[in-house]
UniProtKB/TrEMBL annotation, chains A, B:
The keyword Flavoprotein does not apply. The keyword Coiled coil does not apply. Its EC number is 4.2.1.1. This is Carbonic anhydrase. Gene3D superfamilies: Carbonic anhydrase. Belongs to the beta-class carbonic anhydrase family. Keywords: Lyase, Metal-binding, Zinc. It catalyses: hydrogencarbonate + H(+) = CO2 + H2O. Its cofactor is Zn(2+). It is an enzyme of class 4 (lyase). Reversible hydration of carbon dioxide.
Length: 171, 171
């Protein structure tokens, strides 16, 4: 695995025409996007966003429970006041259950790490879901009810379709 | 705040020319990028990556400690075997300390949530850093030494410069 060996060459092309070097730190649209790490998602392009306009938090599933630290920093220090949560069709999070993944990790543990791994992994919730639309609604509810999130935050929930590139609001 | 009101119109332009509807779930380069949520970073474009090639995990600072759940899912269920960690110049994480942010959150808490908020926030490490290059090295070390990360994972560490769009390998 050596994808990183292409980074410098590819990046030098990008840097040649780079013109956005003076953008301020706070996102100009006061917007934070939470979306999945999925390789088929380009958060900026698919929403017509430009550099400098929005924070983008990405993790497995686009789960907000795993984004609270980032949301606090984004809101309290960098002024964002709107959160849009995106989950997507064909997500890997629809394909497994936490107990099963715990077993995969524990069963492949080197003997010298087995106890340590079991202790950590048995307390890890992988935040998978079985109902895509419901998972978005759950995450929007989580944010609206969370006292760590600023009270007047505008929170919306969306599904991105990886097959046709379209977004649909569901919350 | 209503940036979301433009999503559907902007997205319909994107969807009109969308041609990548048949990509498989596993990233074709078996690569996972960890980078910051910063609004000035376009992970795909700046590295010349195409849709479908890499998972992208983003959080405040691009800290790997906050990405372990996603990394396990990416490696064990979706086959990635390389991790590239990117932090960047001008990062908000260089501008504050955890105790200070804890105070900001606690001081603005509604009285009815004050106890609950204090309990959570006093246990939250915001993972800020004071030395950019060292923070990348620390994160690469964390991954290399973490038994939850697959043993033969290729891990590299990088700095992205938001002022000229260039990347530099530091670990």
């Amino acid at each position: 695995m050596s994808a990183h060996k292409d980074f410098v060459a590819n990046n030098s092309q990008y840097a040649e025409t780079f013109k956005e070097g003076d953008l301020p730190i706070p996102p100009s649209k006061k917007l934070l996007i939470v979306t999945c790490m999925d390789a088929r998602i380009d958060a900026f392009s698919s929403l017509g966003l430009n550099l400098g306009e929005a924070h983008v938090v990405r993790n497995a599933g686009g789960r907000v429970q795993d984004a609270v630290r980032s949301i606090i920093i984004s809101q309290r220090l960098l002024g964002t006041r709107e959160i849009a949560v995106f989950h997507h069709t064909g997500c890997g999070m629809l394909t497994f259950a936490t107990p099963q993944l715990r077993d995969i990790v524990k069963n492949s543990a080197a003997p010298e790490h087995a106890t340590e791994i079991a202790q950590v992994i048995d307390q890890t919730n992988f935040l998978e879901f079985s109902d895509l639309e419901q998972s978005v609604k759950d995450d929007v509810k989580f944010l609206k009810e969370n006292p760590l999130v600023l009270k007047d935050t505008v929170v919306t929930g969306w599904i991105y379709d990886v097959h046709d590139g379209k977004v649909k609001q569901v919350a």
